[in-house]
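Structure in, sequence out. Go:
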């Protein structure tokens, strides 16, 4: 699962999202390259989720444009998004994955093997037949990741994938994200957890009030933030 050159980089050029004259995204210019995970951080309402949804064209840009590998006309097929609270279908864990494989156009003859692979990747062996809605919160999130991986994505967007999970379940999700990234998938993830950002990020994007405040390698961002907003956010102060 390695991103072909045609999918990356993902480039935002002056992208704005306006709702009744309120800027949800405000003239964002940003380039997302391959490699280690890009982590989006910022206060609640900063535009992290909107940026992910806009990249997937679930929300149309009011102004500006987004290109994938330099192309604007069509989205590549190998991309996926996992929302903060993914809905579980009223079927078993394995049934949820089979449904996702069918929706992704995987031939019926190959679904059984691919289902077994995904169950193994996300660590749900032994829980295949359990109703998805009876899984724990952490297990449901891992199942949601398996469904996202059914598309064999080159790019995977994650919106707060461990929100409200306990430390053990959070670690399991983070370990899985590392495994996915190590397989060559470009992960772009939104989180409010600075500790998680430090553990996972190759590079950081800080958003506030829909504006891009600062972007750079994670080590540099946390060691020597350039903007006053970044310094305050890292220190745990409120951004007004």
């Amino acid at each position: 699962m390695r991103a072909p050159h045609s999918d990356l980089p993902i480039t935002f050029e002056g992208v704005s999202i306006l709702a009744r004259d309120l800027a949800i995204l405000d003239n964002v210019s940003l380039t997302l390259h391959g490699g280690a995970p890009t982590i989006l951080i910022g206060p609640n309402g900063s535009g992290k989720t909107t940026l992910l949804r806009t990249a997937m064209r679930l929300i149309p840009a009011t102004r500006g444009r987004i290109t994938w590998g330099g192309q604007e006309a069509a989205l590549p097929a190998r991309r996926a998004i996992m929302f903060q609270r993914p809905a579980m279908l009223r079927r078993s864990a394995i049934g949820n994955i089979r449904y996702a494989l069918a929706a992704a156009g995987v031939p019926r003859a190959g679904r059984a093997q691919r289902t077994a692979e995904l169950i193994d990747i996300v660590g749900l062996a032994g829980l295949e037949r359990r109703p998805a809605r009876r899984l724990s919160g952490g297990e449901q999130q891992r199942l949601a990741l398996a469904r996202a991986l059914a598309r064999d994505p080159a790019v995977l967007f994650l919106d707060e994938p461990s929100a409200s999970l306990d430390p053990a379940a959070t670690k399991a999700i983070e370990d899985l994200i590392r495994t996915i990234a190590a397989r060559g998938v470009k992960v772009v993830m939104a989180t409010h957890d600075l500790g998680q950002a430090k553990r996972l990020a190759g590079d950081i994007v800080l958003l506030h009030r829909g504006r891009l405040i600062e972007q750079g390698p994670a080590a540099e961002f946390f060691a020597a933030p350039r903007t006053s907003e970044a310094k305050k956010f890292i220190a745990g102060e409120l951004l007004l």
